[in-house]
Amino acid sequence: MAIHPAAAAMRRSHDALAALVPTLTPDQLTGPAYPSEWTVSDTLSHIGSGAVIGLMALDAALSGEPPPDRSAFSAVWDEWNAKDPQSRAVDAVAANAKLTEAWAGVDADRVPGLEFRLGPMQVDGPTMVRMRLGELALHTWDVAVVVDPAAIVEPAAVEQLVDDLGLVASFSGVPVDGVPEVVVATTDPERRFTIGITDSVSLGPAGAGSGAADAVLPAEAFVRLIYGRLDPAHTPAGATGGAVLDRLRTVFRGF
After folding, report:
1. Superfamily of domain 5-161
2. Mind telling me which InterPro entries this protein's record contains (predicted)?
3. Fewest CB atoms within 10 A around its CB: which of 31, 56, 189, 245?
4. Three-state DSSP class for 128?
5. What pLDDT, on the 0 to 100 scale, is given for residue 80?
6. Span 174-251 CATH architecture
7. What is the DSSP letter of 108?
8. What is the DSSP letter of 24?
9. Is the CB of residue 86 less than 8 Å from the CB of residue 28?
């Protein structure tokens, strides 16, 4: 059986989470995460409750049963909201381990045939597993950066996410005035993207005639930019196009 590449990357991100959580002090658990609107405990609760709901959805997709409804989600959220900070931390790792191994147990050839309902949207298996990978990897960074300001998103996750950011950009992007199109180049891996900013926000591969890049930065930082996590203090020193990045920060404000 072959494991889907995004599920393999999820394992790497889970290992990072599992190594990080035992190092957190009680003060860190109740202190701010990134962004500061949530505590570290809140972020871990989100990872854990999302894993429980994600496993319910995956089980339904694999069995052909109807997806869980909103009332099932509310019960999970109520349970996690009632946990104390230490329990949230420990239980988040355990819950995420179950979901991670469940995805790892789905043959890669079967993943494209899975269907998931997300509110009004229907998404396929590859989209769903990458969405969970992004949620796990970026929220793990939200916690890790509290401990180490130089923390980075797990490289295996970046490799899987960097070519699949269009959906995230369309949801998270907020149109602002200015040049309607920006070209961004990344390193490690090397990519070129066009970000369209009109009455909506779009992101896709840059065409052959797109010209010189307006900004260049590592792919890891670009992923964080689209997820609203590239403030100046956490921007790599070698990134170029500072004014363009400042504008893009107003487009991608995080969620």
Report:
1. dinb family like domain (1.20.120.450)
2. DinB/YfiT-like (IPR034660), Maleyloyr_isom (IPR017517), MDMPI_metal-binding (IPR024344)
3. 189
4. helix
5. 98
6. 2-Layer Sandwich (3.30)
7. T
8. -
9. no
